[in-house]
Amino acid sequence: MDFAPPLNVDILANALRARFGQRLRRDEPLAAHTTLRVGGPADLWLTVTTLDELIEAVTLAWQHHVPVFLLGGGANMLVSDRGVRGLVLQNRCQRVEFDEGDPPHVLVESGVILPSLAHRLARRGLSGLEWAVGVPGTVGGAVVNNAGAYGSSIADCLARAELLTPAEHPQGNGRREWRSVNWFEYEYRSSRLKRTGGRGPSAEHPKEVVLQAELVLSRKSPAEIENQMAAYSKRRKATQPPGASIGSMFKNPPGDYAGRLIEAAGLKGTQIGGAQISPVHANFFVNLGDAKAADFVALIELARQTVKARFDVELELEIEKIGDWEI
Ligand SMILES: Cc1cc2nc3c(=O)[nH]c(=O)nc-3n(C[C@H](O)[C@H](O)[C@H](O)COP(=O)(O)OP(=O)(O)OC[C@H]3O[C@@H](n4cnc5c(N)ncnc54)[C@H](O)[C@@H]3O)c2cc1C
After folding, report:
1. pTM of the predicted model, to two decimals?
2. Ligand 1 atom at minimal distance to the Cα of residue 131
């Protein structure tokens, strides 16, 4: 079977190399950039560190009709063994600006690492992200996924976010637009952006890019915030497995827990290839070291079919399957 990338990728590669030089890489293995440690190569790979770079790279990809995919921490995605066609941008835009008004605000670029931000806010006595202490990934990923824990989520403190929206004309530039929190139509671990995203990048349906976010916070003493965060971290350590995973594999169905159902179906500890349903928490699937994405797909199907057969519950993926899955 021929896996050759389409010609536009080569043309885009030339345009990106003219702007970013040797920082542009080809055939970068994505296993190195995802928390699950699986995933084949990205045709093109670039790390961006400023919003100008991010906008330029995305705009070039859109103009060349090449799919472009934003990678934050890679903490919520199962990347195909065949990798991702097109351009993958690793977002490391990390400016943070504090506005100590009343209420206090913070303006954060989308590549800021969420748990690091939670610690920075705690040191300043700014409350609102305590739940994020054990949630890996970036602000951009959190805005798309409505990341959250312990009854809170990013939707609770997001005032607005700035997006880069694809131009109507293919040769045009994208538009920078601020959208208030209501625009995102947040639901449990989901948003308007996640729902329209489909299964990763596509040249025909380019996705909006989150550039930055404004969070509204409140004031508490640093000690109180840090104590709360320490309690959350302790709870995580006691209930979640260490090692390579992508957090919860499935959303909790209404009124129940995906982990409880998978465990009750007798699947805790089940292994396919190098992938295992964790013996610690059945909604965490872990990479024992040499897993392939295909091993996780097989485990996902096994869990779905067994839970459906035993309890008549359809488990819905919380994570995203990304890349080229055609066999
Ligand atoms: C050990 C562990 C524990 C976890 N616990 C939790 C938890 O308690 N609660 C929870 O909610 N999640 C949890 N997760 C999942 C993960 O942390 C969140 O989903 C997180 O928000 C993912 O962020 P990310 O930057 O890694 O996103 P990625 O996985 O890199 O991307 C996710 C999606 O967002 C898109 N995206 C990323 N950045 C942008 C951007 N700037 N613009 C547009 N699209 C973008 C990507 O293209 C992709 O479609 C856990 C994961 C792990 C590994």
Report:
1. 0.95
2. 8
Residue 136: CB within 6 Å of ligand 1? yes
Ligand 1 atom with the smallest distance to the CA of 319 is: 19
CATH (domain of 139):
3.30.465.10
Please, are residues 80 and 3 in contact by the beta-carbon 8 Å criterion?
no
Are 288 and 216 part of one and the same domain? no
In a domain? residue 2: no
pLDDT along the chain (327 residues), means of 10: 68 97 97 98 98 96 92 97 96 96 96 98 97 97 96 98 86 88 95 75 75 98 97 95 95 96 98 97 97 98 98 96 82
Q: Do 101 and 228 belong to one domain?
A: yes
Task: Check if the beta carbon of residue 104 is closer than 8 Å to that of residue 120.
Answer: no
Ligand 1 within 6 A of CB of 209: yes
Q: At what angle do helices 222-239 and 114-123 cross, to 10 degrees?
A: 150
R_g of the chain, CA atoms, integer Å: 20
Q: Which of 41, 61, 91 is the last residue of a domain?
A: 91
CA of 75 to the centre of ligand 1 (A): 5
Last residue of a domain, one of 91, 121, 150: 91
Q: Ligand 1 within 6 A of 320 CB?
A: yes
Residue 317's domain comprises 241-322
- 84 forms beta bridges with 42
Ligand 1: distance of its center to the CA of 178 in Å? 21
